[in-house]
Amino acid sequence: MAAAESYPDDLRYNRDHDWARVDGEEATLGISWFAQDSLGDLVHFEPPGDGADVAKGSSYGEVESVKAVSDLISPLSGTVLEVNQKVVEEPETVNEDPYGDGWLVRIRLADASEVDDLLDAAAYKAFVDEQ
After folding, report:
1. Non-local CB neighbours of 22 within 8 Å, separated by 6+ positions
2. Edge-to-edge strands of the sheet including 78-83?
3. How far apart are CA 33 and CA 51, in angstroms?
4. Which string of b and e fits 63-90 if b means at least 16 CB within 10 Å?
5. Which CATH fold would you assign to the domain 12-109?
């Protein structure tokens, strides 16, 4: 069952509908409720490898749904520490819980100041409402 629309206040968002939960020198990344809803039922997650470098504004993997294949655009730069294997094996987890069990990767931040360029929940929700 798909999750209800939400945009948690503790996350930061980019305009490509990806989110970041920053915790010190690390961040967990995923896609927003809006992104998973627009894509429909996810059937595949192509993650980066452990230890791969990701760059803010660049693709770090793909998600495939019944509708389309979409690049994941990193909201922050860093090095991949962990890939969510549950989502690799059960991509529909993102549809069910995009901000909890449906996270995609965890990274070590290369530049913590990049967080300042991301949208807070209110700004992101206003952006989504314009879509």
Report:
1. 12, 76, 109, 112, 115
2. 12-13, 18-23, 26-31, 105-109, 78-83, 53-54
3. 27
4. bebeeeebebbbbbbbebeebbeebeee
5. OB fold (Dihydrolipoamide Acetyltransferase, E2P) (2.40.50)
Helix (H) or strand (E) holding 31: strand 26-31
- Residue 131 — very low, low, confident or very high, per pLDDT cuts 50/70/90? confident
Output the average pLDDT for the chain.
Answer: 96
**What residue ranges do the domains of the chain occupy?**
12-109
Side-chain-side CA neighbours of 102 within 13 Å: the count stands at: 24
Q: Is the pLDDT of residue 1 over 70?
A: no
pLDDT tens-digit readout, 42-95:
999 999 999 999 999 999 999 999 989 999 999 999 999 999 999 999 999 999
